[in-house]
Design brief:
Elements: E1 2-10, E2 13-18, E3 21-29, H1 32-39, E4 46-51, H2 52-56, H3 62-71, E5 75-79, H4 85-94, E6 98-101, H5 103-107, H6 109-119, E7 124-131, E8 134-137, E9 142-147, H7 148-155, E10 162-167, H8 179-188, E11 193-196, H9 202-209, E12 215-218, H10 220-223, H11 229-237
Parallel strand pairs: 1-4, 1-12, 4-5, 5-6, 6-7, 7-10, 10-11, 11-12
Antiparallel strand pairs: 1-2, 2-3, 7-8, 8-9
Length: about 240
């Protein structure tokens, strides 16, 4: 299982939100590049970067994300506010290895399909942001009527690089991921599932390994030093 640290950017800073609420924000680094430096040389393959300003409609952190890509020798996966072919191509030209689409497939599926055809489905991840069993979008400010599992099943044949499942109610809480819901996803779809939201202790990773998810995105637990990357990698790399 792949360990993927998260760097969420709001107002140019590395932050974590509790349950996606921009009013409940914790700043960990004034410069997100400081966080990047902590993740280098640890045998990681990916970093998950989210432009919260773009996702919430506050602005853009494109120049800062460009510097993160430039300074990293790790694959960068970018999400947050990618809602046009122009923006997708801009990030890909900067060197992003995978783009995460969340709102676009819900609100403008034809634009999302255009991005996929231009960039390649293997370089795209689709965000499944789940709130009370339904799919959330627009920086989690809106919720559709689509069931998260049905939505995932509908995406399964598109050969995306990954489906990223986030429990919005657990994100930033350290209360543990919803294992039962992740189990359903890994049982019903063949696409790689990356779990996100709620990891607070090493036992959460042990349980996630048993779901057959291909990866896990971790943010607050690392910044709060609940465990180290080396400790997490040992759990994920060892047989349990």
């Amino acid at each position: 299982m792949e360990l993927i640290p998260a760097i969420d950017i709001l107002d140019g800073q590395c932050v974590r939100l509790r349950q996606g609420n921009p009013k409940n924000v914790e700043v960990y680094f004034n410069n997100p590049l400081t966080a990047v430096q902590q993740f280098l040389d640890l045998g990681l393959n990916w970093i998950h970067v989210v432009d919260l300003d773009a996702a919430l409609g506050f602005g853009q952190n494109t120049a800062l994300i460009a510097r993160i890509i430039e300074k990293s020798d790790i694959n960068i996966q970018i999400g947050g506010g990618i809602r046009s072919l122009k923006k997708a191509k801009e990030y890909f030209a900067l060197g992003a290895k995978r783009l995460v689409l969340g709102t676009l497939p819900i609100k403008k599926p034809k634009v999302a399909e255009k991005i996929v055809s231009e960039i390649g489905s293997e370089n795209i991840a689709i965000a499944i942001d789940e709130k009370n069993g339904q799919v959330s979008y627009s920086g989690w400010q809106d919720t559709s009527t689509r069931d998260y599992l049905d939505y995932a099943i509908s995406l399964d044949e598109k050969e995306y690089g990954a489906l990223i499942y986030t429990s919005t109610s657990r994100d930033g809480t350290l209360q543990g991921p919803p294992i039962a819901k992740i189990n359903l996803l890994t049982e019903k779809v063949s696409a790689p599932i990356i779990a996100s939201g709620g990891v607070g202790e090493l036992d959460d990773l042990v349980q996630l390994k048993q779901t057959r998810a291909s990866g896990v995105i971790i943010g607050k637990a690392l910044y709060e030093k609940q465990f180290s990357i080396r400790e997490a990698k040992k759990v994920l790399d060892d047989a349990y």
